[in-house]
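PROTOCOL LOG
Step 1. Enter all chains and additional molecules of the complex.
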Amino acid sequence: MKKIHAQPPEDHTGIKIKKTSKTGVGMPAILSSLEHMRKYMNAADALKVSTKLNQKGGIDCPGCAWPDPDDDRSRLGEYCENGIKAIAEEATKKRLKPDFFAKHSIAELSEWSDFQLGKTGRLTEPMILEEGVDHYQPISWEKAFQLIGHELKGLDSPDEAVFYTSGRTSNEAAFLYQLFVREYGTNNLPDCSNMCHESSGKGLSQTVGIGKGSVRLTDLYEAEVIIIMGQNPGTNHPRMLSALEKCKLNGGKIITVNPLPEAGLMNFTNPQSPVKMATGGTKLTDLFLQVKVNGDVALLKAMMLLLLEEEKNAPGKVLDKDFIISKTNGYEDFINDLKKYSLDQLCEASGLSKSEILRAVDLIKYKEKIIICWAMGLTQHQNGVDNIREVVNLLLMKGSIGKRGAGTCPVRGHSNVQGDRTMGIWEAPPKKLLDKIESVFGFKPPREHGFAVVDAIQAMYDKKAKVFFAMGGNFISATPDTELTAKALQNCDLTVHVSTKLNRSHLIHGKRALILPCLGRTEQDYQAGGEQFVSVENSMGVVHTSQGVLPPSSEHLLSEPAIVAGMAMATLGNRTKIDWINMISNYDNIRNAIEAIIPGFENYNERVRQPEGFYLPNGAREGTFNTKSGKAEFTINHFTDFELNSNEYLMITIRSHDQYNTTIYGLDDRYRGIYNERRVVLMNKKDMKKNNLNKKESVNLVSEYDGVERVARNFLVVPYDIPEGCVATYFPEANVLVPLGLQARVSKTPASKSVVIRINKR
Ligand SMILES: Nc1nc2c(c(=O)[nH]1)N[C@H]1C(S)=C(S)[C@@H](COP(=O)(O)OP(=O)(O)OC[C@H]3O[C@@H](n4cnc5c(=O)[nH]c(N)nc54)[C@H](O)[C@@H]3O)O[C@H]1N2
Ligand SMILES: Nc1nc2c(c(=O)[nH]1)N[C@H]1C(S)=C(S)[C@@H](COP(=O)(O)OP(=O)(O)OC[C@H]3O[C@@H](n4cnc5c(=O)[nH]c(N)nc54)[C@H](O)[C@@H]3O)O[C@H]1N2
Ligand SMILES: [Mo]
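Step 2. Run joint prediction.
Step 3. Record the structure below.
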């Protein structure tokens, strides 16, 4: 049989390098949105969707999880360029019909790029790949459910099945899904969060008693200083820039900590302000700290050491001693450890000079309304959890949590990743959740913890897990160690994907494979009880509705809750304690069940219908810390000191402006000035010179861990403003270099932002 490729093709697409942008959003963003709508959508659909996006009672944008204002929302729509691209991707006018699969074999499709795969249109019918056959064929829903039920019932133990979730799944679908998986008998519920903000969840729960952020949107407007670490909002959360602009207009200051000077964060031209469009943007970042990759713990320690000195000079003015005494635990041990470090050593490890760090300290020393925002630049390191806990240490020293204008702000990725976890999509469920399920539904959920993403891959690789089911996502391309993960999936007896669009995971299959096409956010969802809406939770803990407006792209699509119910009935038969038909006939019934199980959802059906939704309880926001000690915890944290040889670099894998995780909208990275190419490695000019590498020269990237060499071929060198010794590539192309074993301590998040690589000339 022909080879099936787990990695995207190695060919180049025709690179153009231009100047990096000086400002984010503005006119180019508007033009780019219009272009995407024109190219991929029907005009009427585009109009209908764009006026409903992120409006009260409208569609929750399937892009990021940034919240919508509670009060007034722009009439132009609360959307951004990349939200429009997400919509154009889902609500495309193209359809992928069964004859497409008859024409193209799996092996052939695996030679296509992710961009090409994504542009084939919406999946329209359930498809099956039979054993030994190389084309998918249509199958009825009935037969597909029977097949899944048959396989699941045939396993020696329910723990031989893995049920993955990507973070677009609604609260209703997620709740039903975990309920089914637990009644079936396993906690194997890995999710994209394991690769994303798991480090934040783990770090925050331990220190402030809740695994979510503490701030509301209005806190950002009121903050005196916002520190943004390891995040590129211009691309990944563009609506956040409007909130930052409000903070600036109110007199706030912004410190950015990043190895890259990301354009959108430096300056912002608000597309909804004609004056700004004409006169140029707002300067957002007041102080840019170009930290070395993974230099954040060192930087934070240096800042805290300097704050201690400032407190000596102005006692009582810098540190919030009352807060520290009444609300926290472990301060003395923390300070004793901190004093072991020298400032020189910390400057060296952070890649910053003492004077740069002093400027940051000057900005915050007399302030208490401080917010720290972060994303993947902090979580995806071996010391990812340490990063987050160190962020908390700084906030605690300043008493900057549990009050207005201050607190923690982990900026979530997928639009409902936070809600999915609240609903119980969790391989390590709290005992309370399981007890409640047992008492309300009358079955015994398994108590043993299940597999996180990396454990699931290992288990499939070792043939200890045999059925892989994915509720959304693109597992092969999102996970580390591409070639190893491909083997793991190919070891399975059955792989199943509930999806809206074709992706590489459909091609890296088990003995048999199913594609189950589902409704997307933009589409109307009719069930026996009439038209339904779903609900989601944003990055700041607001639960609200999302209602599709377009007719389904095919008559054969089922909603995600209906797919769960179909699979549950086929698998559990008479032994189930749940009335699945009743649950999906009217999603109010699912919401009633959620209310009975999950704290904070009292009167769910009533409150979710309020136009702006409702806030979930959040102790840290109120200054109540639900930790073991009842106080916020200072912690002692470590960083990894990488000792690199002369031809070794610390690689980060990041998103371009034209992608949504593994979905490639286009081939440009406009703000970074890189056009029409994704196989690039961004390097400091001095490093290029040192290794005799030219602009656009083709190189191979090699990582070597535990004696195994992993190679990513044919990447083009792009000179870039990045600290020496550090390089950047895009994922999924560079995922092949990330070894499965390279994980964050405690959270098991793949350390895909600190991979040591060599660069070899070709
Ligand atoms: N358009 C669009 N929107 C998205 C997504 C998308 O792919 N496209 N993805 C969604 C998802 S799931 C997520 S999780 C978020 C991701 O949002 P981000 O976390 O902003 O995404 P990344 O591209 O991974 O960028 C990480 C940033 O961290 C910086 N960085 C890397 N290493 C370090 C480090 O060691 N220290 C510091 N201080 N900074 C570092 C990088 O230079 C980069 O600016 O966005 C969500 N929104
Ligand atoms: N090297 C490296 N790897 C990373 C990261 C990194 O920064 N560097 N980031 C990690 C992060 S933060 C994340 S969150 C993961 C993302 O991992 P995933 O969530 O698994 O990946 P996505 O690319 O978001 O999934 C896209 C697919 O979801 C399907 N889809 C879209 N909408 C829907 C829907 O409404 N319903 C259903 N059922 N399916 C839908 C489509 O078929 C589409 O192809 O990747 C991680 N991987
Ligand atoms: Mo994410």
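Step 4. Note key features.
The chain has a mean pLDDT of 94.
The chain has three domains: 96-192+416-611, 198-410, 643-761.
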